[in-house]
Specification:
There is one protein chain. This protein has 172 residues and is of the alpha+beta class. The chain contains 5 helices and 4 strands; from the N terminus they run H-H-H-E-E-H-H-E-E. Helix 1 runs antiparallel to helix 2 and helix 2 crosses helix 3. The chain starts with 11 loop residues before the first helix and ends with a strand.
Length: 172
Amino acid sequence: MRPGEALEHLSREQLLQLITAYSRNWLAMDGVWFQSIERKFGMDEAMYHDIQAWQRFTVTEARRIKKFLNLPDRPGLPGLRAALSLRFMANLCHYEFTEGEHTLTLRNLDCRVQTARLDKGMPLHPCKPAGEAEYSGFARTIDDRIRCRCLSCCPDVTDDTCACAWRFTLEE
């Protein structure tokens, strides 16, 4: 069987369900390797590797989505918004965008990672450093003029109405 052949016979609804399953599988794998390092070597070591992984993965993900959307080299904030909407995590989290004149704000309204950790009796994941690597790298790959700033993210939560918030600014 050639790659993807099994997908050709699935309905649109089945394909959408499969995308959700793939997204959950990806998130589970991300959590499994992280928790393995966390248990054996502690949170600091796990965070080091998490940041390293996100610095590389986010660029790959952004490049592939940019190519899929056929975005130009510098698509600005509209291109970033379109690309962010197609990330794996976008299939799993409830989020919202707010647009300003030269800004785009992304607010994740819930977080499957934090919910899963709390359900397991684990402390919250201090994800801000990994999120900074993730969102900054993704934005820069979509358009090298875009900068990212964390507005709220564990452990520096400044907005308790969301799981995390990120502001993207287009610098000319």
